[in-house]
Amino acid sequence: MQIYLPIAEVSVNAFLLLGLGGMVGVLSGMFGVGGGFLMTPLLFFIGIPPAVAVATEANQIVASSFSGVLAHLRRRTVDLKMGGVLLVGGLAGSAAGVRIFALLREMGQVELLVTLSYVLFLGIIGGLMFFESLRAIRRSSKPGARPAPRRHHSWVHGLPLKMRFRQSQLYISAIPVLLIGAMVGVLAAIMGVGGGFIMVPAMIYILGMPTKVVVGTSLFQIIFVTGFTTLMHATQNYTVDAVLALLLLLGGVIGAQIGARIGVRLKAEQLRILLALMVLGVCGKLAFDLVVQPTELYSLGPGGGH
């Protein structure tokens, strides 16, 4: 069933969009990521303009993340205090990111920036997560092996403005928490992602949070940052397609509940290596599209001639 998207100005299959939304919702519930790192490139691939894909996907992330958070709140695996501090940094970063996005859109450089950002961040994060998870699985498979001890003291613990996060069993500085939140806010605005693929590893390896609390806390922060990002894009850049967002949202809410149930049945190392493989797969596809010669060397944009 073909449906016309008024802001994107293209016709797409409605069932395809529902399916994509459901798939990303499953990822959200399983891994604590908004799923935008996968959905936004997929929207590029089916012909949605990058500016519309980025702004609209942020809207869909809100719904799938909210659905996932409800499941984690029932299991008491959300650190609300940690999420609140991350949120303060995230809102500031999001406001700055939307402004940068608007400037680049005026210059006509949005598509290149978004694609390069994806290749860079997905390649680095996916590679680090994959090799670390592989080492963890090898350690756990050895007879009599014990999990590697978590480092309780690092450079993070030497910073000022310390706060106690009881749910995460941490007493650390608020500075790295704010910085992680701000970075995720910028990514949400420019790349149309929740930022979970950056935030989840950062919360585990930099802050030292327990994996079981990370997923729910990440989703909690993602809800508010991506909601704010959507509002900013809609009022300043006019690039949010409500019809596209609704179809993605319906699939995403259902998928997130399924993903949350699947996630509790897998070990932390298995979750991380699956996420890493998906991140690297999307990165490879985007990098290939950057270097391969397009089938059409010229295309007419909104300001093009006839």
From TrEMBL:
GO CC, any one term: plasma membrane
InterPro entries hit by this protein: TM_pro_TauE-like (IPR002781), TSUP/Inactive_protease-like (IPR051598)
Transmembrane segments: 12-39, 51-73, 85-104, 110-131, 170-198, 204-226, 238-259, 271-292
Keyword Ligase: no
Pfam families membership: TauE (PF01925)
Topology of the protein relative to the lipid bilayer: Multi-pass membrane protein
Subcellular location: Cell membrane; Membrane
Superkingdom of the organism of origin: Bacteria
Keyword terms, alphabetized: Cell membrane, Membrane, Transmembrane, Transmembrane helix
Family indicated by similarity: Belongs to the 4-toluene sulfonate uptake permease (TSUP) (TC 2.A.102) family.
Name of this protein: Probable membrane transporter protein
Lineage summary: Bacteria, Pseudomonadati, Pseudomonadota, Alphaproteobacteria, Rhodobacterales
